[in-house]
Amino acid sequence: MLLLALTGSLATGKSTVSTLLSQPPYSLPIIDADLLARRVVEPGTRGYKQILKHFSATTPDLLLPPESPSTDTPTSNNASLPHQKNKKAERGRPLNRPALGRRIFGSTPSRIRARKTLNSIIHPLVRLEIAKSILYHFLLGHWAIVLDIPLLYDSGLDIFCPVVLMIAASPEIQLSRLRARDPHLSEKEARDRVASQSAVGGKVARTEARGVGRGFVVWNDGTREELAGEVGRVMREVERGRRGVWRWVFWVGWPVAVVWGMWEVWRGWSGRREWEKGERDREREGKKGK
After folding, report:
1. CB-count exposure of residue 108 (10 Å: 0-12, 13-18, 19+)
2. For residue 146, what are the contacts with CB-CB under 8 A and spacing of at least 6?
3. Among 77, 115, 160, 186, whose Cα sits 20 to 30 Å from the Cα of 268?
4. How far is CA 68 from CA 43, 73, 78, 85, 92, in A?
């Protein structure tokens, strides 16, 4: 089974591509890391408790306000409503995501540290949920799964994905789309969010460095129709090179699938190591030039 990583920065159109791949003619199962990231920090979960432990002191409005008493009145159509609300109250109030976003997004040292702390809480929990979903879809016999992971390279999950599809857009297009999608954000908040992620150019270079058939970059500065056409072109190439191989591996038996999977992980790990070594070399050369 092929793990196709779909990645991109904020407001580049990654969600649109995810929707396209989930529909005919592709009809691929989607594992959405953002959705899982929300699930693992719901009230009462281990992730939720860890976030409270680390951020309550520095973020007074970390939790949403309690529900208004007027909303707690049971209706005749739902006699179990009070019991349900009591269970919700026991788990705790939901996280105030805009407040948490203001705490972690930005380029100041304290916000960078806060962002790293939050990622160290969420990423391991999301990886576990991804592994469960992959096993489920593997047992169903799908030839490929789309892993929708915005922070693919930051999380280190790229080594498990033989193919990466990167959706990119110019910075000004990103900013305009983000503010249209989230109108409550000020221009500064929107810029902080865009700047908090790795630069699009770096992700593009890293994806292209994976080589032919392993890294694809689609620029989404145009219309949805143009984007759909580019996605179709990429998927035709992926299917030509991968679909038949994985179908053969699957039917030969799971031991062959495991060995093949380990080979792909080794290739991914080697490629990541080579890229990081190149980054260190470029950094040293840059310091010498100064």
Report:
1. exposed
2. 4, 5, 6, 18, 21, 22, 28, 29, 30, 31
3. 115
4. 18, 10, 18, 12, 15
- Tell me how far CA of residue 7 lies from CA of 30, 154, 205, in angstroms: 12, 11, 13
| Structural element, H or E, at residue 30 | strand 30-32
Give the span between the Cα atoms of 20 and 220, in whole angstroms: 14
Total residue length of the chain: 290
Write down the pLDDT at residue 98: 93
Output the pLDDT for position 28: 97
The pLDDT of residue 68 is 47
pLDDT at 142: 87
CA distance 104 to 90: 27
Q: Which of 202, 123, 203 is nearest to 164 (CA)?
A: 203
* Element spanning 146, H or E: strand 144-148
Residue 249's pLDDT is 63
Q: How many Å is the maximal CA-CA distance in the chain?
A: 75
Instruction: Give CA–CA dist 130/30, Å, rounded.
Output: 10
Q: How far is CA 132 from the centre of its chain?
A: 16
Burial class of 166 by CB neighbour count within 10 A (0 to 12, 13 to 18, 19+)? buried
Averaged in consecutive runs of 10 residues, what is the pLDDT profile of the chain (290 residues)? 93 95 97 96 96 95 77 48 60 93 92 94 95 92 92 92 96 92 90 82 93 95 96 94 65 70 90 91 79
